[in-house]
Amino acid sequence: MTIAPPSDVPLLEMRNIVKLYGGVAALRDINFDLRRGEVHAILGENGAGKSTLVKILSGVVTPSKGEIRLDGRRVHIAGPAGARRHGIAMVYQETSLVPTLTVAQNLYLGDEKFFNRLRGTYIEAQQLLQSLNFPVDPTAIVQSLGTAKRQMVEIARAVRLQAKIIIFDEPTATLTPEEKHHLFALIDRLRQEQVSVIFISHALEEALEISDRMTILRDGAHIVTDDAKTFTRETVIRHMVGRSLTDELYGRAAAGKLRPPGEKVLSVQNLSMQNVVRNTSFSIFAGQVTGIFGLVGSGRTETAKIIAGVVKRDFFHGGDVQFDGASVRYRTPCQAVRDGVVYVTEDRKGEGFFETMSVAENIYVGQICSKESRGFATSMREMRELAAVWTKKLNVRALNSDARVIQLSGGNQQKVMIAKALVQKPKLVIFDEPTRGVDVGAIAEIHHLIATLADEGLAVIVISSYLPEILSLSDRILVSRQGRIVEELSPGLATSETVMFAAVH
Amino acid sequence: MDRWLGRGSASITMPPMDGALRPNDLLDSASPILEAPAPDCLAVTSRGVVVSSGHALVALGRSDGAPVASFDAEISALAGLPDGGAAVGLVDGRIAFVGGERDGKVIPAGRETRCITALAPGRDGVLLVANGSAANAPAAWKRDLMEKNASGSVWRIALSDGGRQQVAGELAYPYGLIEEADSVVVSESWRSALTRLVPGGGRREPVLENLPAYPSRLSRGSDNAIWLALFAPRSQLIEFVLSEDRYRRRMIGEIDPDLWVAPCLRSGRSPLEPTQQGGVKQLGVLKPWSPNRSYGLVARLDHGYRPTASFHSRAHGRRHGVTSCLAVDGRLLFCAKGDGVVASCGYEGVAL
After folding, report:
1. What integer is the mean pLDDT of B231-260?
2. Does B19 contact chain A (CB < 8 Å)?
3. CB–CB contact A488 B22 (8 Å)
4. pLDDT of residue A466
């Protein structure tokens, strides 16, 4: 006979958790508890200790000190399999699926029967995915899926394991607003079924919306835990970074301090690329930040990539791109860079930098591509000097410039990528999702940098799915829908609702 | 090759109306001052602001509505002179004077100026004259575009003896003029551009290019801002027709000009107009599709001829075909020739 634990005992308690890496404390005396059927957001800057804490919980990392209690009983979580046995599942930001297997095979990976009937597996998988409202084909090979759908498969796998605790690490970073809506409905359903959810996100609005309680960590230490209702965006940020970031940068539109347009730098006319970019036209002016908002799949990134020579427009009647008054058709990004057009990609790990190279080498790669390059004649001294200047200018926090980029936090990786672009002395900078997966401290720094570039007279395009970013940074807002720019709004008059309405209808 | 691929100079593309040219409904919300048939050109004289309408010159704000002057030919251009009078260009090429020192005098038509589209007072007792086309009369402007002519010219005519001196030729329908210290800025309609002409050397410099509509008259406000009227929108369809020579020749030869696939001062009044019954199927729904052939647009330019603000009458509007505008006493006056209205609106605070 088992005795049900009293309801006031938290489902999970982590007491006095300490984690040391070579004598450096990643977590310092953390206390954390999770109640049944609650959504608990853990927030903090990169390096605050969120990931370490949930890695301890999911059995990936062993704590140096402290204890974990589940249902009031002390437990030892020995590896990820042990965590699964205890009913703890984790949905990773970067999916842990096997790319060459089908969706259904991934869902049942490790749970295969002695004799497998693939058809039966597909039917079960289809039922599971349908019950979650996820439009994913169970027979599709995972590598053929987009990031959002891979995320859905991850979530479905956690739900299938009937976990008592599901940890979501940045679940919405790659989802469209509609998919996000589905995810939140699912989390709500899990909550009703008394499943507890730990929610890690950089999108503070989402955390405020979905969570019941919030815990904020800073520099490996516990700062505060309280009901989500007691927090506002400003108080959360203040707890996270230890200072207020709400300064004049984010009140310009209301104060009527928008930058006036300078010369027309870029004119995109009737640009087309298959069904993705459809007869789109817009202009970009010097000395302004032009924000482009749109849902995923609205053709923003593709348009930017055509401008920067990364992809090519239609061969026949693909439209015209005029940069500095002249028609241009870049076959490679290098040509665009030499003319003064740089594109800072949204996929920094895939396209943004060489992860096996150092910070200095990555920044120097940008210089090599620029007009001032001397071809193969490279100089180590020049590389180090350049790295020193830009790491200082952009406040890149690395142990030294010889550190590999992959070892840095998301924010610092982004800054390296921006340095690599700015070293090319551009006239037009296109930022694609500049703060995706970046902590709030670094977000403010990147926003300041973008504003400074526009103040210096550069033409700046910011493509973002994050509405507050678009509204706060932009001097003009362009809205993209179904492959074309459909609306232009002034930030002084635009609201989240008007921008979203234009993006959807 | 470019023509086949639709690239380079053969690409059929339109500059967007965005930035300072972002559409609004300000022309439609302007207060009407005068309703008259085809009001065309505005000027400031000692009798106040006058507007040309057909054969007559009408003063704005006059209660009886009687014309200030009438002529035996239609008026095609008008300019206020420093002495308070007005120079009136007629469709047959004559230039008549109303009021001021030269009241009642007429400069006879010259062979070179048979299509006067704009007049502007110049320094040293000269009158600047824009001759839109060497081949067509002002009323046949649509034909001039469809024939892809660039036979316009700008002249300096001495007021004392009527002596003429050409400033520049081979212009693509000059439709507006403004004199600067050492040059003349002209709006070339068929090039959708403003061009600076430097007398003497015949030098030309682009001032503002790639406009999304066909520019017409220019005027200068008291704050040194430049005001530009644009009388019809450019569209990919019309550019496509302009690139199809055989189609265009047949259209010119066989179809009534009012029904050409060409810009116009007011469209949508006849079911016989081209593309009025077009349609596209989108998401399984058949939707009407009819690109605009008329529009209302006035742009305010800074001293460097860069657009800073704009006033629009969109597809559904009732102030199309703006051929002239003036900024007087903090208000913008404009002629919507397509809809037969002269109206005014405030412009302070209207900016990007």
Report:
1. 93
2. yes
3. yes
4. 79
A486 Cβ under 8 Å from any chain B Cβ: no
Asked if B11's CB is within 8 angstroms of A320's CB, the reply is yes
Shared domain check, A425 and A397: yes
- Residue B321 located in a structural domain: yes
pLDDT score of A191: 87
pLDDT averaged over chain B? 91
Number of structural domains (chain A) is 2
Domain annotation covers residue B273: no
Same domain, A238 and A264: no
| Residues on chain A touching B314 (C-beta within 8 angstroms) | none
Q: Look at residues A194, A227, A243 and tell me which one is the last residue of a structural domain.
A: A243
**Residue A4 lies inside a defined structural domain of this protein:** no
CB-CB neighbors (< 8 A) of B306 in chain A: 263
Residues of B in contact with A490 (CB under 8 A): 352
Tell me, what CATH number does B310's domain have?
Answer: 2.120.10.30
Q: State whether A261 and B352 contact (CB < 8 Å).
A: yes
- Pairing, β B31-35 against β B341-346: antiparallel
**pLDDT at B284 (0 to 100):** 64
Q: Is B14 on the interface with A (CB under 8 A)?
A: yes
Strand, coil or helix: what is B90?
strand
Task: Answer yes or no: do A145 and A20 share one domain.
Answer: yes
Burial of B223 (0-12, 13-18, 19+ CB in 10 A): exposed
pTM equals 0.75
- Domain range for B169 is 19-238+292-346
The interface residues of chain B toward chain A in range 195-234, judged by CB-CB distance below 8 A, are 209-210
Gap between the Cα atoms of A353 and A345, Å rounded:
10
pLDDT one-digit tens code per residue, B209-226: 999 999 999 999 988 899
Rounded to whole angstroms, how far apart are CA atoms A504 and B20? 25
Test A317 with B5 for CB contact under 8 angstroms: yes
Give the CATH number for residue A134. Answer: 3.40.50.300
Same-domain status, A47 and A184: yes
Domain boundary residue among A184, A214, A243?
A: A243
Residue pLDDT, tens place only, B105-156? 999 998 889 999 999 999 888 999 999 999 999 999 999 999 999 999 999 9
The answer for A319, left when phi > 0, alpha when psi is -120 to 50, beta otherwise, is left
B12 has a chain A CB within 8 A of its CB: yes
Domain that holds residue A76: 12-243
Do A189 and A53 sit in the same domain of this protein? yes
pLDDT in tens, A438-466: 777 788 889 999 999 999 999 999 998 87
Let me know if residue B232 belongs to a domain. Answer: yes
Contact call for residues B13 and B192 (beta carbons, < 8 A): no
What per-residue confidence (pLDDT) applies to A250? 62
> Does B31 reside within a domain?
yes
Any residues with CB less than 8 A from the CB of A96 and at least 6 apart, and which?
Answer: A154
One-letter amino acid for residue A436 of the chain? R
Query: What is the model's pLDDT at position B283?
Result: 60
Mutate to test the interface with A, among B13, B194, B243 (most CBs of A within 10 A): B13
Residues A282 and A382 in one domain: yes
> Would you state the torsion angle of the CA atoms of residues B65, B109, B150, B170, taken in this order, to the nearest 10 degrees?
-130
Which residues does chain A have with pLDDT short of 70? 1-8, 22-24, 46-47, 93-95, 114, 116, 147-148, 173-177, 242-256, 398-401, 505
Chain B CB contacts of A282 under 8 Å are: 16, 18
| A235 vs B172, higher pLDDT | B172
Is the CB of A317 inside 8 Å of chain B's CB atoms? yes
For residues B151-177, give the mean pLDDT. 93
Q: Across the interface, which of B6, B13, B20 has its CB nearest the CB of A316?
A: B6
Cα angle for residues A199, A203, A206 (degrees, 5° grid): 65
Is A246 near chain B, with CB under 8 Å? no
What are A319-357's pLDDT values in tens digits? 999 999 899 999 999 999 999 999 999 888 778 888 888
Q: What is the count of structural domains for chain B?
A: 1
Give the C-alpha separation, A503 to A463, whole Å. Answer: 13
